[in-house]
Amino acid sequence: MPKKHMWAAAYTDHILTLGNSTNNRGESLHRQVKRFLQKRDSLHKCIFKVYRWNVKVSRRIEIEAEVAATRRYTYHVSASLEHLLRHLTKFAATRVLYQLKKVRNLYVSLATPNYMFINDGSKSYEVDLTSGECTCPTYIKCRYPCQHMLLAHLRDSNFTIDIMLRHCRRWMHSYNLCVPINSATPCFKPSKQLLQKMINTQRNGRLIFQKFGESFAMRAFTKLENYTKRILRR
């Protein structure tokens, strides 16, 4: 294991890191930020540019999530596990399928109405059947269903998909921008009109910035963002 992974793993073995165990988690964004900032920019202008860059990235993520939610993938698994994978994003579903392959090497050492103890090689992990949590490093660091939770679901029918995903909302389609879950019925896709509207919004934002200055443009963008959020909550 490289040194840059060793020290990070030593301090993040029991922390939610979403699978990132290197020391360049924050540094990876520096190059993107430097593309929009210049040395002669004032602090006020730097904050405005970073805010504008964040809005642009957020809009792109929204469109990508909507497109991904409309795609339907075929998984050669049981009906219950397929229902689980339909709720997850493509990345999380791929990781869960990888965890499913490891189930064959596990066995249950003790099962109670509320807990299930599963042996994984020389180690034993505990799955809470009521709260939907596991004590293994994979679940603690990444917070998606691990191999031990999948085995518990296959052995105990009371350990349902809803319980398993109780603390895995971050990887669900319903959490990511409230887009619809994959199904056989066609879902909403971003139209050309929506994309053109976003382009016009960015163009109008540049005109406001040039004509009225930074302060007015920032206040206008803030009001527009708050108004959009109020509409989405209805």
Number of domains: 2
- The parts where pLDDT drops under 50 for at least 5 residues are 178-191
Q: Please, how many helices?
A: 10
Report the span from N to C terminus. Answer: 50 Å
Q: Mind summarizing the main beta sheet?
A: 4 strands, antiparallel
- Form type: elongated
| Mean residue pLDDT | 74
**Could you state the order of secondary-structure elements as H and E?**
HHHHHEEEEHHHHH
Q: Using DSSP, what is the number of strands?
A: 4
Concise description?
With 234 residues, the protein is an alpha+beta fold. It has 10 helices and 4 strands.
Tell me what you see in this structure.
- This protein is an alpha+beta fold and 234 residues long.
- It folds into 2 domains: 41-70 and 191-234, no CATH class; 79-171, no CATH class.
- 53% of the residues lie in helices and 8% in strands.
- It is built from 10 helices and 4 strands.
- The chain has helices at residues 3-11, 30-34, 43-70, 79-87, 90-101, 137-142, 147-155, 161-164, 192-212, 214-233; strands at 107-111, 115-120, 123-128, 133-134.
- The chain has a 4-stranded antiparallel β-sheet, with helices on one face.
- Strand 2 (115-120) and strand 3 form a beta hairpin.
- Helix 9 (192-212) runs antiparallel to helix 10.
- The longest helix has 28 residues, at 43-70.
- It is elongated and about 65 Å long.
- It starts with a helix and ends with a helix.
- Residues 178-191 have low confidence and may be disordered.
Record keyword descriptors for this entry.
single chain; 234 residues; alpha+beta; 2 domains; 4-stranded antiparallel beta sheet; 53% helix; 8% strand; Zinc_finger_SWIM; zinc-finger; metal-binding; Znf_SWIM
